[in-house]
Amino acid sequence: MNTVSIESLRKHVELREDGTLWWKIARQKRPKGGRAFATKKGPGNKYLGGMFDGVMLLAHRVVWALTHDEWPTGWLDHIDGDTTNNRPDNLRLASPMLSNHNRRFQSTPVKYLGVVFFRGAYVAQIQHNKQHYYLGRFQCAEEAARARDAKAKELYGEDANLNFPENF
Fold first, then answer.
1. How far lies 66's CA from each of 63, 76, 113, 156, in Å?
2. Do 37 and 88 share a domain, yes or no?
3. Does the predicted model carry a pTM greater than 0.70?
4. How many domains does one find in the chain?
5. Residue 27 has pLDDT above 70, yes or no
6. Residue 104 pLDDT greater than 80, yes or no
7. What's the Rg (C-alpha) of the chain?
8. Could you give the strand order of the β-sheet that contains 35-36, starting from the edge strand earlier in sequence?
9. Is residue 139 assigned to a domain?
């Protein structure tokens, strides 16, 4: 439960259409009109956040509270996977499973979700509800990515995180 009142936030912070937060009133060392909650915080320092009345707040949760007039009770997911894009239409309540599904991994040299290069071929795979789906071996990374997208769409529906969203 959050101890910061949304009314107090509304008094001190302006939410702009692009999801950025700005100070309406000078506070401590912060000037009026300065960017609020703009420091990397949270797990892995990948979320924007900052202090307000002695409480560390993450910017996406502040945006949700100001937009919905209540603090989120569970996980919030950035639909486009960009943890600095806090536009209200890019945030949704999510289960841990959906939020994890929406993550973008950067550790593989293959640029597609659910595709790895293994023993001379591109392997497509996906997980859903703790079930691993092996989708096959492909000569082309793009072909493997399209196979993974088709299965993602089948498993996750409109919440699917796709390599080629324009195809669905």
1. 5, 14, 33, 29
2. yes
3. no
4. 2
5. no
6. no
7. 19
8. 13-15, 21-23, 35-36
9. yes
Locate tokens 């089948």: which residue? 154
Structural tokens at position 99:
């939020």
> Side by side, which strands form the sheet with 131-138?
115-118, 121-128, 131-138
- Cα 51–92–154 angle (5° rounding)? 145
- Return d(Cα 162, Cα 121) in angstroms, integer: 21
Of 44, 115, 47, whose CA–CA distance to 81 is shortest? 47
| 105 to 75, 128, 141, 160: CA distances (angstroms) | 19, 17, 16, 15
Same domain, 112 and 43: no
d(CA 106, CA 116): 12
